[in-house]
Amino acid sequence: MAIQKFVIQIPELQLEELARRLKTTIWPQYKESWSWERGSDKTYLNSLLQYWQDQYDWRKEEKALNEFNQFKCEIDGASIHFIHERGTGPNPIPLILTHGWPDSIVRYQKIIPMLTNPTKFGIASKLSFDVIIPSLPGFGFSTLSDSKECNNSIVADLWAKLMVDELGYDKFVASGGDIGSSVTRFLAANYPDKLIGIHLTDVGIIRDLLSASDQSNLTSDELAYKKDAQVWIAQEGGYMSLQSTKPLTLAYALSDSPIGLAAWIIEKFRSWSDCEGDISKTFTSDELLTNIMLYWFNNTSSTAANIYYENTHSLPTLKKVNVPLGVTLFPKDILLPPRSWVEKNYNVVKWEVMPSGGHFTAMEKPDLFVASLVKFVNSCNVKINE
Q1: Structural domains of the chain, count
Q2: Which of 26, 221, 265, 371 would bridge 102 by S-S if both were Cys, CB 3.0 to 4.6 A apart?
């Protein structure tokens, strides 16, 4: 299928059905002493539900998303939805941004105009970017192939074909976090000749350090990471274990209950962001609900969770990555990687730790994210606008 223009148009019947389900929400039994440490807090969810019913305006959010140029095309049997906004000037740098779970293209919504015209936002750079933001297959408006499953390496293959074969870019920059970090690293490993550089806000969970039985060669930072990661997986990794083993069982509940879907997603936005326990300090209710709506309207609970299953069961070993890497770490992200390990395994040319921010980097701290990304691309000595 050739590239086709795409406009988000959710039928009114879907909005009416959502309103009906919200109105008939069945709450679980709940003790007043229970709170966030056991999962999503009912008091908060109830207030969000009231806002969702009485004040949230999907049509306003839909209009805002439709201000960006969006397209769909078929690649290897998958229907890929993506934003494609062109930068100012004669020679913008192609940049593909990959989101993760439980976020979506909304993760990068704020930074699109900042990247297409950085100087307009006070960022000292001659660079501008053609910004490409695809929805992962099985997320948002992208659908999976009927003939094969999809892990992060396969997504990297799809992205390479999107950028080179469909959009006609010879070389490009790739950036990502969460699942997007892994996809970006597979892009660099499998298509090094197509990458100017890669930019990451995390390097995933470092399984090599977790499984290392011989700790004599590990640095103090690597030993500390190993300990912290083991604690985090034990206390916070239940979602990952479930989605890696029985994603479909969970999806029946999430596909049937909007407040159940919200509870599953919201808890991660609170736990993984730099909000000091108060999610409203970091995200507006509109931001949170718009992200949830992309899962709800497209009924992607099962297909989004399924990528965890495929990554556990079919993801190949990542090859050596020699493409220039820029790392931008936000202090309240899930697990901060030890620099010594990253530098042993990647070609790190830029390493920067931000003063604040969490896992949902470009949503939480768009200015910091863009400034760091621009500095990294400048360090790659690419041809820039004159």
Answers
A1: 1
A2: 265
pTM over cut 0.90: yes
Active site residue ranges: 178, 308, 359
Residue with tokens 């806002």: 51
Q: Is residue 27 part of a domain?
A: no
CA 328, CA 346: separation in Å to the nearest integer?
Answer: 14
Residue 108: CATH number of its domain: 3.40.50.1820
Residue 276 lies inside a defined structural domain of this protein: yes
Q: Which long-range contacts (CB under 8 A, 24 or more apart) does 247-256 make?
A: 247/302, 247/305, 247/306, 247/308, 247/309, 248/302, 248/305, 248/306, 250/301, 250/305, 251/301, 251/302, 251/305, 254/295, 254/301, 255/299, 255/301, 255/302
Residue 33 covered by a domain: no
Res. 386 pLDDT band, cuts 50 70 90: very low
- Does 338 fall in a domain? yes
Task: Map residue 325 onto helix, strand or coil.
Answer: strand
